[in-house]
Amino acid sequence: MRLSYSHLYTYAACPKRYWYTYREKLPTPLWWQASFGTSLHNALYRFTQEVQGTRLWKSLENGLQQPSQMSLFFEATPTLPPIERLLELFDSAWVSVGYADHAAMYAAKEEGMHLLRNWYMHHAKELLETVAVEIPFHEQVGSCSIGGRIDRIDRRNNELIVIDYKSGKLRSAEETALDLQLSLYALVLHDYLGLDSIALALYFLREDALIETRRSKEQCEETRAYIHQVGKQITKEEFSPTPSPDTCTQCPFRTLCPDSVCSSPSTE
């Protein structure tokens, strides 16, 4: 069974949403929040690629391939392009789908440019310590084949730290400690690089906040067990709904599902 973080997230949110999305394959509308986040993410990704230049982490160049030892190789000293280049990349990466009208789209684009200027001012130099971006991985957990990409890995204080960009609402340290996506990344680094304690962080662009956390070897094994359990439940066709105001508000099938407890989309 092929799964991704999106599959796991959707099933955790509501098994019936998973059924609508991946079994019934119903089309889902692209809300402006997704377009906005994708635009920011792609601009930062392309900018980081340019900062890196020819500097690559050899063991990660073609994805995580279980290197025999963790070694960093730098082929060139990176340089930092000007802020104007980042804004150019944002403009070319802009996704205009999902906005109520042109005025709403323009306001969002202005906000995005403001967020990127602020990020550049305070954090762009940190990219000089970035060793890899958009690293593809493949993780086998029982009958589940998990694929995906890790946004960014930096070298900091003689260890690696995974950084994932977020354009949504700020999360607490407690919420970050339970973040499933970070837990999946930690499991991958644990298995491929033999790390028993993995540093991870979510960077929230709107609040200019970096929320850090860690995962231990034991927590990685808990994540493995969770993925295995989800895989078994999907195989058994366990798609009972788990409705709640928060869950249903975020669901694109809220007006279709007879178990939904709301009918209006989220505006967050």
Q: How far apart, in Å, are the first and last alpha carbons?
A: 33 Å
Overall tally of structural domains: 1
Report the sheet with the most strands, covering strand number, pairing sense and barrel closure: 6 strands, mixed
The CATH architecture is Alpha-Beta Complex
What is the CATH topology assignment? Lambda Exonuclease, Chain A
Structural class: alpha/beta
Q: What top-tier CATH class fits best?
A: Alpha Beta
Mean pLDDT: 89
H/E series, N to C? EHHHHHEEEHHEEHH
Beta-strand percent range? 15-25%
Helicity level: 40-55%
Oligomer classification: single chain
Radius of gyration: 19 Å
Low-confidence stretches: 56-62, 65-76
How would the global form be characterised? globular
Overall strand count:
6
How would you summarize the topology of this molecule?
Blueprint: E1 2-3, H1 5-13, H2 15-23, H3 32-52, H4 83-93, H5 102-123, E2 130-141, E3 144-156, E4 159-166, H6 173-177, H7 180-193, E5 197-204, E6 209-216, H8 217-235, H9 245-249
Parallel strand pairs: 1-3, 4-5
Antiparallel strand pairs: 2-3, 3-4, 5-6
